[in-house]
Amino acid sequence: MSTRVYISRDAAAQALGADETAAALQAAAAARGADIRITRVGSRGMVWLEPLVEVEDSAGRRIAYGPVTADRVPELVAAGLLEAGPHALRLGRVEDQPYFANQERLTFARVGIVDPVSVDHYLAHGGYAGLRRALEMPGAAIVQEVTDSGLRGRGGAAFPTGIKWKTVLDQPTDQKYVVCNADEGDSGTFSDRMLMEGDPLCLLEGMTIAGVAVGATQGYIYLRCEYPHAGHALREAIEAARARGFLGQDVCGSGKSFDLEVRMGAGAYICGEETSLLESLEGKRAEVRYRPPLPAIQGLFAKPTVINNVISLASVPIILQRGAAFYRDYGMGRSRGTLPIQLAGNLKRGGLVEKAFGVTLRELLYDFGGGSASGRPIRAVQVGGPLGAYLPESQFDTPLDYEAFTAIGALVGHGGIVAFDDSVDMARMARYAMEFCSIESCGKCTPCRIGSTRGVEVLDRIIRGDERKANLAQLESLCDTLQHGSLCGLGGMTPFPVMSAVKHFPGDFSRDR
Amino acid sequence: MAETHLDRPTALDDLLAAHADQPGALLPVLHAIQATFGYVPPEHVGRIARALNLSRAEVHGVISFYHYFRHQAPGRHVVQVCRAEACQAMLCERTEQHAKQRLGVDYGGTSADGLFTLEAVYCLGNCAAAPTVMVGEKLYGRVTPERLDEVLDDWRNRS
């Protein structure tokens, strides 16, 4: 019987050499006449251990080794890797690693375990149980279940998902759409990508449930073009699901129709904003729309549209499978369920940690993240992407909770955490925030389009030391205009990183360079 | 001007016809053109517009809105260097500087030998193993200047 080996096909694992490791392992096994079967899976999320190789031992347990780069393969195979033998890189079961054992994996339960595009694997691990249950329920009951779960938009805005769905459900039109916002442009975030590469069928199931719930027959996944690997996985998964009757004219024999198409973005951060995403899907310049009307009433092609982030939609199957109460029991306050948190930047153990809301930044940075990669003190942390505030050490005990973060002028956003050590120059990070806004502004509203460029100039003067006091006052006034006068979150929230840097790290704005 | 396959009417017409019935077809059309030819030749804006019943201004406006669409042919390999926050936290400026110096170009430029076009990108989703670089569709993590040399040498040898 052949030895089963699992290696990730996740883009992050590939970026660290997983393909080369798989090829080397296949060659080394062949040279020894060993019969192995390599399954390419998603990533377990412990990126610092990639390429991670898991070998099934005689008891059927997956024994992990990592990081296994291609050059280490001959040595490892000689030491008995294929028999799950001892070696310095042998980690034991992934489930026994504290990093993994201390998580609550609901949405990511299958990622890293199953072949992402195998419907059989998906079914064997609880897949499509949620959809089957949903197909027995009236649309309003499905929507109620999602509402009762407390699920809020994981893209960053944290709007209750069930309320969005209810609005679409209540629209009396023939054509409705489900759109997945997979334009994960925030730096420091990659949970959407990992889910789409590691368990794309889960997203497909979530979207199908949404379609069944509100009466939509067509769905689109709007995927950023920086994620080609996710695109391949999604298309493979869609074909596999269609071939087995989980998508198409007659979903699971229910007589209900739902189908999906992947559409690629084209390098515009603004498309993460839902109305500009819809413009882009319609083939236009991705300029933000005025609201109202809400997309739930007039969305894609002016039809009622459910538009949700990848993780929001991928959390729906388990809610339908296990019930609203199961999901709602995780979390704190009004932040219910779990959040896939991404540990990024200057951290020793970067990766994906799915936890119930309530975990503190300090636990994430040190217990999970292991402190900085450089070994220097962590000085600042940006949570929630390029529009999120920079937090100093004194705020590291804040629990991850939408309301707790709002209270300190910060945002949880999409759950990305980027750590910087003490070599960071926060005035330059503030300048970058303005520069990014100017590069990515859609140009529709003046505060964002012009204000961001002026912001870069003002910060340049501050950094150079020209009339610092007057220019800091100018910056504050400009940020006030951006925050209150912009049409969407890009201009409206760029002041968060800028002003938080000024507030918490004033020394960086007053020293000569 | 170099002859492209697009100069033969059929290639572009076939491509446009294949997308004619797709709702909101312009982005898929532009992607298909760029995937086939490496860029969106400005001289074909008129034909794209006619096929999709749009004005030339609308098509040009869309092409110029999105950073991804190129207006001129790239080198044989496109090198994208991430300059977003997570990569900055791991000193991607050094990798950026090195890439510019080594290829002798700024962002948007193509090396004199025509092998590499250098582009800035804002997040490739590899933020736990920064700095990140992508060549074509191949992603690389922890790309220090030294690692970038290895990567570029590897692609040069493939050419």
Rg value of chain A? 24 Å
Number of domains of chain A: 4
Number of helices of chain B: 7
Give the overall shape of chain A. globular
Q: Mean pLDDT of chain A, rounded to whole units?
A: 98
Order of helical and strand elements of chain B: HHHHEHHEEEH
What can you see in these coordinates?
- The complex is a heterodimer of chains A (513) and B (159).
- With 513 residues, chain A is an alpha/beta fold.
- Chain A has four domains: 3-101, 3-Layer(aba) Sandwich (Glutaredoxin); 119-328, NADH-ubiquinone oxidoreductase 51kDa subunit (Rossmann fold, 3-Layer(aba) Sandwich); 331-421, Ubiquitin-like (UB roll), CATH 3.10.20.600; 426-509, de novo design (two linked rop proteins), CATH 1.20.1440.230.
- Chain A contains 21 helices and 16 strands.
- Chain A has helices spanning 11-15, 18-31, 73-78, 98-101, 119-124, 129-135, 139-149, 161-169, 191-198, 200-214, 228-243, 274-281, 310-322, 324-328, 361-368, 402-407, 426-440, 446-464, 468-485, 489-493, 495-504, and strands at 3-8, 36-41, 53-56, 62-65, 90-92, 177-182, 218-223, 259-264, 305-309, 331-332, 335-336, 338-345, 351-356, 378-383, 390-392, 416-421.
- In chain A, the strands form four sheets. Chain A has a five-stranded mixed beta sheet with strand order 2-1-3-4-5, covered by helices on one side. In chain A, strands 13-12-16-14-15 form a five-stranded mixed beta sheet.
- With 159 residues, chain B is α+β, with helices and mostly antiparallel strands.
- Chain B folds into two domains: 5-65, Arc Repressor Mutant, subunit A; 77-158, Glutaredoxin (3-Layer(aba) Sandwich), CATH 3.40.30.
- Chain B is 45% helix and 11% strand.
- Chain B has seven helices and four strands.
- Chain B has helices at residues 9-19, 26-37, 45-52, 56-65, 85-88, 92-103, 145-158, and strands at residues 77-82, 116-121, 133-135, 138-140.
- Chain B has a four-stranded mixed beta sheet, covered by helices on one side.
- In chain B, a hairpin with a 2-residue loop joins strand 3 and strand 4 (138-140).
- The longest helix of chain B is centred in the last third of the chain and has 14 residues, at 145-158.
- Chain B is elongated, with a radius of gyration of 18 Å.
- The model of chain B has no long low-confidence stretch (mean pLDDT 94).
- Chains A and B meet through helix 1, strand 12, strand 16 and helix 17 of A and helix 2, helix 4, helix 5 and strand 4 of B.
